TrEMBL record:
<dbReference type="GO" id="GO:0051537">
    <property type="term" value="F:2 iron, 2 sulfur cluster binding"/>
</dbReference>
<dbReference type="InterPro" id="IPR012675">
    <property type="entry name" value="Beta-grasp_dom_sf"/>
</dbReference>
<protein>
    <recommendedName>
        <fullName>2Fe-2S ferredoxin-type domain-containing protein</fullName>
    </recommendedName>
</protein>
<keyword id="KW-0411">Iron-sulfur</keyword>
<keyword id="KW-0001">2Fe-2S</keyword>
<keyword id="KW-0249">Electron transport</keyword>
<dbReference type="Pfam" id="PF00111">
    <property type="entry name" value="Fer2"/>
</dbReference>
<comment type="similarity">
    <text>Belongs to the 2Fe2S plant-type ferredoxin family.</text>
</comment>
<keyword id="KW-0408">Iron</keyword>
<dbReference type="GO" id="GO:0046872">
    <property type="term" value="F:metal ion binding"/>
</dbReference>
<dbReference type="InterPro" id="IPR001041">
    <property type="entry name" value="2Fe-2S_ferredoxin-type"/>
</dbReference>
<keyword id="KW-0479">Metal-binding</keyword>
<dbReference type="InterPro" id="IPR036010">
    <property type="entry name" value="2Fe-2S_ferredoxin-like_sf"/>
</dbReference>
<keyword id="KW-0813">Transport</keyword>
<feature type="domain" description="2Fe-2S ferredoxin-type">
    <location>
        <begin position="2"/>
        <end position="92"/>
    </location>
</feature>
Length: 106
């Protein structure tokens, strides 16, 4: 099983075979920026600093070919093929704690 190092927070997480980087981050309680979890919004856009990933199908809007060629990936669609190091592009997780919100739809 590969390890992914999240350079934003200097933390390494083991990723299960076939698991996406985003899924592994969320399972490890990392407040990773994301939205749709299906490769359509681009909110989890990430720079692959080191390593390689298989990238599942995604919207060209979320990750155009020229951005992919420049080393960007979508964490929700990226499965590491070995150890990797990444930097997400949005915000700083150390300043955004998890919140649990409860609500009622009326």
């Amino acid at each position: 099983m590969p390890d992914v190092t999240f350079l934003n927070i200097a933390r390494t997480v083991e990723v299960q075979d076939g698991e996406t980087i985003l899924s592994a981050a969320l399972a490890a309680s990392i407040d990773y920026p994301h939205g749709c979890k299906s490769g359509r919004c681009g909110r989890c856009k990430t720079r692959l600093v080191e390593g390689a990933v298989d990238l599942f199908e995604h919207s060209r809007f979320a990750l155009p070919p020229e951005e992919r060629a420049a080393g960007l990936i979508l964490a929700c669609r990226a499965v590491p093929t070995g150890n990797a190091s990444i930097v997400w592009l949005e915000g700083d997780a150390t300043t955004r704690p998890f919140d649990t919100l409860r609500g009622e739809v009326v």
